[in-house]
Specification:
Strand content: under 5%
Organism: Aquilegia coerulea (Rocky mountain columbine)
Largest sheet: 2 strands, antiparallel
Keywords: Membrane, Transmembrane, Transmembrane helix
Strand order of the largest sheet: 1-2
Membrane topology: Multi-pass membrane protein
Distance between the termini: 34 Å
Number of strands: 2
Subcellular location: Membrane
Protein name: Nucleobase-ascorbate transporter 1
Number of helices: 24
């Protein structure tokens, strides 16, 4: 998840007027809060082995806040950075109430009654497929690093997974990422040191080079992120409504990711109560993001969901321990800056595999439906196609005009709709769930896979739910499943 943790601040902090030092502090804060949120989610939320990290869904509302005329009038760059960060913090703190209410009121669980295997297949599939622009598009910026990384990941994880250097441990299957990243990272550093990128295009240099001396120099040795470290948050209604769109999108994306994580971890689909509980804790996580100033809000890390399938390690204890490692590295800034020197194509090559695994998990839900039904074929095909093409239209429009297709006199309304329709899982859910619950509903219960799905809606519907989703420390006595 270091890719996302580094990419988001690297793209947004300079637009806010921040320096390299500010960028490192934001990366540290994002990693620190992600570790805390992961720990909370694994202990008290859904209890699934899901890592919580920064989300790209928040970029459009954040750019809207950055472009606010009152902030743009500030001429001193560092002061503009601080004021913009405080505005983002205020919007995030207030908009987090949307997820908290949806989760703890059980409204999101009630809404999940409309989900079926047919409706969720394209949504979960688009959680992976919707991230196409972070795959080979970025690998292509530095093919001499990205393609070897992709090939070695496939070689170790698939062709050599049964080779055991230690009798009881399938090293290549379990530690594919930890083996591949250092090898290609060292290879990229050799190319950089040899001057392979001295006179190349700017994009190639940014993608391929490993010498990030300025970042390492600007990073403190030891710094503990803390609430209100950037100052007192400021609150604006327009900013809050714009940010709520990202919170809604992250709710839908996380729901799809939870479904995929449960399947890869060989757990039952999370019941409505557990799903609501997870979304409620995610809302608290977004509030922590806002209080600490991590720049972006939280969502379930799709790459780590894919990692469950790649390594076949679905233990929540592993995720809890990993959360501790995230907190440790966030406190020691030089380590974070060192990891920031990993070229993006290395992450992108991993994403090609990990996002693809998540997409295939979504499509696997179709086995519980009747795909000989023309109704089901129509809903699946349309929701997948629109889920990819509609966000592509919105994103391409934003690239060419620097504004989304929705352009009214209300900036927050523009940001709200542009965020909603730039998210493939959100578009897929709107199309799939609406069509699935309005076209020949009564006649098609069996074709939709509802007989298999219905027993997992309630906590008591399957005996295995207690093993997977019961709260620790005997807390179910005080918070009984409803």
């Amino acid at each position: 998840m270091l890719g996302t943790t580094v990419m988001i601040p690297s793209a947004l902090v300079p637009l806010m007027g921040g320096s390299d030092g500010d960028k490192i502090r934001v990366i540290q804060t994002l990693l620190f809060v992600s570790g805390i949120n992961t720990l909370l989610q694994a202990l008290f939320g859904t209890r699934l082995p899901a890592v919580v990290g920064g989300s790209f869904a928040y970029i459009i509302p954040i750019i809207y806040i950055i472009g606010d005329s009152s902030l743009q009038r500030i001429t001193e760059p560092h002061e503009r950075f601080l004021q913009t960060m405080r505005a983002i913090q205020g919007a995030m703190i207030t908009s987090s109430s949307l997820q908290i209410v949806l989760g703890y009121s059980q409204v999101w669980g009630l809404f999940s009654r409309f989900f079926s295997p047919l409706g969720m297949a394209p949504v979960v599939g688009l959680v992976g497929l919707g991230l196409l622009d972070r795959g080979f598009l970025l690998v292509g910026n530095c093919v001499e690093i990205g393609i070897p990384m992709l090939l070695i990941v496939i070689l170790l994880s698939q062709y050599l997974k049964h080779v055991r250097l230690v009798r009881t441990v399938p090293i290549f299957e379990r530690f594919t990422v930890l083996i591949c990243v250092p090898i290609i990272w060292v290879y990229a550093h050799i190319l950089t040191s040899a001057g392979a990128y001295r006179n190349t295009h700017v994009i190639t240099q940014l993608s391929c080079r490993t010498d990030r001396a300025r970042l390492i120099y600007a990073a403190p040795w030891f710094k503990v992120p803390y609430p209100l470290q950037w100052g007192k948050p400021t609150f604006n209604a327009g900013h809050t409504f714009a940010m709520m769109s990202a919170v809604l999108v992250s709710t839908i994306e996380s729901t799809g990711a939870y479904k995929a994580a449960s399947r890869l971890a060989i757990a039952t689909p999370p019941p409505a109560y557990v799903l609501s509980r997870g979304i409620g804790w995610q809302g608290i996580g977004i509030m922590l993001d806002g209080l600490c100033g991590s720049l972006t809000g939280s969502t379930v890390s799709v790459e780590n969901v894919g990692l469950l399938g790649l390594t076949r390690v679905g233990s929540r204890r592993v995720v809890q321990f990993s959360a501790g490692i995230m907190i440790f590295f966030s406190i020691f800034g030089k380590f974070g800056a060192l990891f920031a020197s990993i070229p993006v194509p290395i992450f992108a090559a991993l994403y090609c595999v990990l996002f693809g695994l998540v997409a295939s998990v979504g499509l696997s839900f179709l086995q519980f439906t009747n795909m000989n039904s023309m109704r089901n074929l129509f809903i699946t095909g349309l929701s997948l196609f629109l889920g990819i093409s509609v966000p592509q239209y919105f994103n391409q429009f934003s690239l060419t005009s620097r504004h989304g297709p929705v352009q009214t006199h209300s900036g927050w309304f523009n940001a709200f709709l542009n965020t909603i329709f730039s998210s493939p899982p959100t578009v897929g859910l709107i199309v799939a769930v609406v069509l699935d619950n309005t076209i020949e509903v009564e006649k098609s219960k069996k074709d939709r896979g509802m007989p298999w799905w219905a027993k997992f809606r309630t906590f008591r519907g399957d005996n295995r739910n207690e093993e997977f989703y019961t709260l620790p420390f005997n807390l179910n006595r005080f918070f009984p499943p409803t």
